[in-house]
Every structure is written in C-alpha cells, then in structure tokens.
Model the fold of this input.
Amino acid sequence: MRVGAGAGWLTRARSVGVAVALVLEATAWSAAVLAAQEPDTTAVERPGAEAQVPDTAAAPDTLVVPVFPEFPRMATRDPWLAAGWELRDILATGALTLADLLEHTSPLDPIRLGFLEGPQLALFAGAGAGGLRYDVDGFEIAPLAGGPLDLHLLSLVEQQRLTLVREPGGYQLSSQAYRNQRREPYSRVEAGTGYRNANVLRGLFSSGLAGGVMGFGLDRIDTDGVPELGSSQRTVLWANYARELPWGIWGQVEYRGTSSERDSFPEPKRSDWIVRLRRPLGDGWHADLVAGSSTLEQPPALPIPDVPVDSAQKFTARQLALRGARTAEHWRAQLTLRAWDGDGVPKYQPEAALELRAGPASVYASARYSHWGDYGGAAGYGAVNLDLPLGLRWFAEVEDGERDLFGGVPVARQFFTRWTAGAEAKLWKWRVGARGGRWRVDPSPALGLPADSAESLRGGTVSVVDAWAGGQILEIFGGQLEAGGRVFFRERGPFLYWPLQSWQAEGRWYLQGKGGQLEIWLTGMGGVRGPLLVPDESLGPGAAVPTGDLYWFRAEAAVRVLDVHIYYNYEIFNATEVRGDLPGFPLPLVRDHFGVKWEFWN
Done:
C-alpha cells in the first residue's frame, strides 16, 4: 500500500471513530427517551436454531387487525429452502443492496461490475443469466432487455421477508413487502455513509388510510466511485395501497420506479405497476390474481469503459398470473398460470410446486414450462429429506430440463441435468455435513445482454463436492459465540463464471440484553473464490480469459437499542491477477460503511 494512502486511511479512521462516537452518544440519549414510550416490538429468536420461514409475519403487538393477506409459500425447509431473511435480519445487517444479502449465499456466485458504480449480479454456477429469478408477491420482475437482473436496481427499503428457494435451473428470490398490522402510523429512516462517499438514504412510511393501509418508500444510494469507473446514483420509489373489497376479496395496487445515473454504464430507468386481487377461501385454500406492466429504458448492450454509451431503447411487457394454493398439515401445493405479452418474455408459463411431509420424511417437487411462440422449454426439480435417528439426516436433489434466457438472446438453448446427494450430522451444538454429485450444462451460456457479448462455451458434465461445519462454541461475556465454514470444489470444465473452488469461514458473537431492549451482533467472515473463466472485451468479441484467486474479508458490527439500529462494515478485497470479477471493472481494495436505522410508531 502506498504511504500516502495509508496516511489517508488513518485520517479516515479518526473520522469514522468520531462519527461512531457521536452516533453512540445520540443513541444512548434516544434510548433514555424511548424507554418511556411503548415497549420494543422486535421479535427475538435464539441464534443456532434452525432457520424457518413462517407463513405469516409476527404482529408488532397483540392487537391484530385485518390486513392484506399473505399468499402461502411452498418451501419450508432445506435443501429446497436455501435461505430466508425476516425484517429483523434485514434491520440487523449492514447490507447496502440486495446483492449484499446474496453475496455469501452458497452456491450463488457474485459478479460485481465495480462497487456500486455498475450492475451487481448473482449467478448460479453454469446457469448463465437465468439462474436467479425475482418474484414480488406473485409478480415477476423480468429483465426485459436480456441478461440477468441487476440487483443494484432493486430496493431494500420495503422488504419485510425474503426467501431463496431452489427451482428448476437455479433459484427464485421471493419478496414480501412490509405489512402494517396495526394500521397506525409507522416510519423508518436509514442513513449511512462510507468509502468514496457512498451515501445511503432510505425512508419508509405506512399508515391506515380510507379504510385500507398505504405504504411509501424511498431508497437512494450514491457514490463518487472508484476513479476507473466514476460516480453513480440510483433512486427507487415504492408505494402501495391495500384494502378489503366486497365478498371477502382484498385488493392492492403497487408502484415501483427506479432511476439511475452512471458515468461508465448505461443508465436504466424502470417502472412497474402491479394490481393484486386475493381471497383466502378457507380450509387452507387461497386464490390470487396478479396483473401488471413493466417499462424499461436502457441501451441494449453494456459498453466497456471509455466507449460512448448508445442511446436508450424502450422495452415493455405485461403479465397476468392466476394462482391457487392449498396448505394442509402434511402437504401443500401451488399452481400458477402466467401469461406474458411484450419484449423479452415468453408467451405463457405454467408452474406447479408440491411439498409433502410424513413423519421424518419430506419431499418437494416443482416444474415449469415456458412457451416462446416458436419453441418451448420444460424443466423439473425434485428433492427429498429424511431425518434419521441420532441426529442424522440424508437428502438428495435432482433436476433436468431446458431453459432459454429472458430477452431472446441469440444463443443456443441451454440443457441441464444436475443431481447431488449428501448427509448431515448434528453433534451436540454442531452440524457437520457434505454432499456431492454431477452437474451438466450444455452449452454454458454467457450473461447475454447487457453484461457481456460472449455467446457461449460448449459446456459439459463435471463433479461437485460441498462440505460444511458450524455451531456454537461457547458463551462469553454474556453472549453466544458461533463459528462455521464451508468449502466448495468443482471439477474444471468449459464453463463461464465457474469458480473451481471456493471456501469461506465465519464467526459471530451475539448478545441479547435482559428484556430484549438491547442486541449486539459482531460478525467476521472471510474466504477465497477460485479462478473464473470470464469474457474480456479488450481481446475481441466472445474472447474469454481466466481470472486469479480473489481473497476477501468482511467485518460487521450491529447494535440495536430499543428501535434504533447502528451498523459498521469493513471489507477487504485482494486479487492475485484481475482486481475484480470481470476485467476492466475493478473492486476497491478496502471499503467501509456505517449508518443508523430508526423505527417510529405514531
């Protein structure tokens, strides 16, 4: 590191220390004031417990009034339920974007074109652009222009619950927006700053209105950026209104608008209008109609740095989805009939999912068919979990099918077959497990527009091995110390964005004060991601080169006092060859960020 840079970081460290001290002092003062108000309503669960995603959100207090009902989810346990975040988890993290939440979720691989200067992507190895879909309470946010979703353009401010569920060909991230169960005025403010003046401002307001419940949110991030890529900013506006209609039907109208300014990348502008009609039918039956339209303005391709940005084009699409679901004690099922019209979307797309639970056995299956007019693609996924005596369990997954990319990108259709099997043992307060299998992707597609212009590699079949261990180590200073690690080995193959191996380790200390008015999370994690085969536009269209190992470390501290959350993040990136995920789009060597989140009732 340069001497001047080191001196600059000492100055920044002093500034950060002063700022954190001021925030802590203000928080201590606010705690004394808020102590006289109504008690804190944050739900607390003990760390180390198995992650579960409940069917309904916990009410802020015992007063529960009718609100827009939630549609039941099909996946309730791993391996098909990969991850989940409740509002409490989102408030307790320093994640700046949706991509930050997914960044360390195995086996998704992050592809970041800069820090916050450009698109942020999450890919399922070997699945190209279509390995991650984003669903907003029944409405799918399709890329429209081709390629994968830019997670940096998606907001965090309105999120109450996020679930990551395995599906044919990849994963589906499902979002549930904030539901005000009191119908009383509620607001939340978040402000933060950090490396390269990366400023975050978020605000959420919700209240009863005209017999229903309204919500409004603002989510803005701007940064000076690294010198090679320049500055950027993006702003998301979110609003919805829900109320009960005749015959037990609930109606909801929602708007999402995104605008961005980027020095070295296209500046997409997007808007989504959504209408939902929902009715619980009793005895576990639910019916749902979701309709909406999406508009996206952006250039059709992502230029490399120092290349002028082309004029924007307009992409539009409309969708209508009819959903039915049934939940019972030992099974749950869902059928979705979705029709599309517009740019970069299929004509229609039926989907079905089923979960069965009988004693120690659980089975999950899902299937999807996409019809694009002149061709179609079908795919299926199945998984089983068997709980055995002595804390053991066995599980297996299998999938097969074909999938094309959103946007009609002119690449060969993708065929995939994957299977894995493994076991896990619970030993005292520890879990140790491993799984292995074979994955086939033929061909291995590039991201397509707007992330690169490489078409595809021939693909093939490779072996994969995944192993993990973690649990509670001890209780220290009144809190619980947990640690864990994971390693992923992949056989070499002609795949784009395919790390040959990766590993990460994590430690966390958690303290909950008496009465639940204080919580502290201290987290440290680090790891290595192996070389990727990535496109390099400087060598010509379709050229691909390997990157080197990428070493990373992240430390995070979060404190909650009553309804005030304070967080501080510190990250280090060190690459052996390419300083980033793609050539020409560097990641900073070091970045940090700190901020405050504050909730208010009435």
About this structure: The CA atoms of residues 150 and 295 lie 15 Å apart. Confidence is low (pLDDT under 50) at residues 1-65, 301-305.
